[in-house]
Amino acid sequence: MNIKKNDVIEVICGEEKGKRGKILKILKSKEYGYRLLIDGLNLAKKHQRTRGADKPGGIIDLPNPVHISNTALICPKCGKRTKIRHDKVEGRRIRICRLCEEVID
Q1: How many independent structural domains does the chain possess?
Q2: Residue 62 and residue 23 in one domain
Q3: Which of 6, 77, 86, 99 gives 20 to 30 Å between its CA and that of 59?
């Protein structure tokens, strides 16, 4: 897989097109493939009941998953959308930006 948790990605199609965010979680499903939970994107409102004194109730925003095909990785160095290539260095597989040749891992 080309992306990992805590990578910065950009949504390339859909309602949230052009917005960037950090990956919170990667969900895998046989039916839907890979989907991503992105911080601050694709939010849905949820009415939550009070659960004790420390957890008040109210309306909260929860991120909904976005399909992996609707996103693109952002290079941390050049800040552009990029595809990556894989190389082996000292027996370890690393990710490299195709635009600026910088190691992403």
Answers
A1: 2
A2: yes
A3: 6
Q: Pairing between strand 33-38 and 20-29?
A: antiparallel
Q: What is this structure's pTM?
A: 0.82
The answer to whether 40 and 23 are in contact (CB under 8 A) is no
Looking at the fold, whether 16 and 47 belong to one and the same domain comes out as yes
Residue range of the domain that includes 83: 78-105
The pair phi, psi for residue 90, each rounded to 5°, is 55, 40
What type of residue is 6? N
Which residue carries 């309602």 as its tokens?
15
Looking at residue 81, its amino acid is R
- Output phi, psi for 84, to 5 deg: -120, 160
Assigned token pair, 46: 């949820």
Same-domain check for residues 45 and 1: yes
